[in-house]
Amino acid sequence: MSEIKAFEGTYQGERAIYLRAGRYEAALLPEIGANLIAFRDVENGNRFLHEPTEEEFASFKAKPWIHGIPVLYPPNRFEDGKFPWNGTVYQFPVNETSTGNHLHGFVADTPWEVEDFGQTKTESYVVAALHVTEGHPVYTYLPHRFTIKLRYALGANGLSQHIFVQNEGDSELPCLFAFHTAINAPFVPGGEAKDYRVKLTIGERWELSERMLPTGAYQPLTADEIALRDEGVYPFFGEMDNHYTAVPQNGRNRMELTDTKAGVTLVYDVGTSYKQWMIWNNGATEGFFCPEPQINLVNAPHVDLPRDQIGLFSLAPGEIWEETARLYVK
User: Is 110 helix (H, G, I), strand (E, B) or coil?
Assistant: First the structure.
């Protein structure tokens, strides 16, 4: 493998940590939620993640949810902004007026610290951390002491992600995480979305109310959704803002996106801690879509179903949760 290095630079004027390894390049924005904003194959010109244009950058900073890999904590929607937890109801701001819900949590637009970056013989890497204690903006809404660390590494086998969460307080911490990963389709220069097919390890589709909250019931999969699960389907076959259980296939929980003309497949292997998928395709608009691995069911603290079924995870004082994911090409 040729050049392997990590270095500090800028991305559209924002501080960025760049990773390079062989034909791959990636960039992380520490001050904007430790968003991994770019993952590219520079030899072939492929850009796998939906990056903001210069014109989009201001709106990206205001709502950094549909570019790169934003971290959602706690993820997705909560009814009336209320988050019941161990006998207390936390009140989150209602920031989605169309549904009257809170949406997407508090860490995607929060500055993170760069703890380390560098390179070894086989990979370049960066470690970003968010330490929440009294006085931190996130503590205002989630009054817990905890640390989240993200480590991204780039090597011959693509981009690896490691998330680490530790409860450093004296009460049970909600451990509800997701990534609003935005994948380009097409990702090949000059490619056409009609040539793309996506496969995802979905199981059941959750029924959602008019407020986009699960009712607790399932809906039958359509023919297109069955193709999404099995042989693959055009990513923009219809509008998708859909919620599914995650059911690993052959031991893995993953998305595969293939450019059938170029013969290139992008694999997003997310690990089996993620019990749910959200899939959003921007109103079936060609260009990008978001396969979002999510620990928990949307609005989980309000849903009367077994905790393990809906991914309502918690960490006792001192406990750690971690998971890995990888983006690679085959």
Answer: coil
pLDDT digits (tens, 9 = 90+) for 35-65: 999 999 999 999 999 999 999 999 999 889 9
Rounded to 10 degrees, the C-alpha dihedral 221/227/233/237 comes to -30
DSSP state of 135: T
State the pLDDT at residue 104. 96
Of residues 261, 77, 31, the one with CA closest to residue 180: 77
Q: 10 Å Cβ neighbour count for 20?
A: 20
Closest CA to 207 of 198, 195, 215: 215
Look at the chain and count its residues: 330
Share of the chain above pLDDT 90, in %: 98
What's the whole-number mean pLDDT along residues 19-26?
Answer: 98
Positive or negative: CA dihedral 86, 87, 91, 94: positive
CA distances from 16 to 19, 66, 130, 312 (A): 10, 18, 16, 34
CA distances from residue 186 to 35, 189, 190, 224 in whole angstroms, order as listed: 21, 8, 8, 19
Mind listing the pLDDT tens digit for each residue in 125-169?
Answer: 999 999 999 999 999 999 999 999 999 999 999 999 999 999 999
Q: Does residue 59 sit in helix, strand or coil?
A: helix
Residues 6+ apart with CB under 8 A from 224: 233, 237, 238
